[in-house]
Amino acid sequence: MAIGKVISNKSLNRNEVLKILRGMWSIEVAPCIEEKGNNVCRVSFKTEDHMRKAIEEGLWSVMGSSLALQEWLRDKGRKWVMLKYEKLANFCYACEKLGHQLKNCGQKIEIASQDQLVMKYEAFLRAAPIRSDGLEE
Fold it and tell me: Is this model's pTM higher than 0.90 or not?
């Protein structure tokens, strides 16, 4: 079983999110997909291999935002994990947070001009647009 979080600063339409997820994974691969909270869902995969593949292939794009998927850990303890971010749909290079872009950043950054903004991350983190045939450009 896996838990997924759509990384967005907006609450997305639950039914649309579930519909998109069902389009990603058929009933044969993921028999149960359910909403667990604000932009959070739980996905029950039929096999461990299906779950591992889905986690390794992520981040997934959902309504212009990224879906981070990880294994559902049933114990109540906390666990640190190393994450590698690639092909992010929405990432702010200014405040270094997921869920919005630089033009929509609400954090006040006092700089004389955009040219003076020094950023650790660049456009290589952005996801390529998806073509109508489902392949990346």
Answer: no
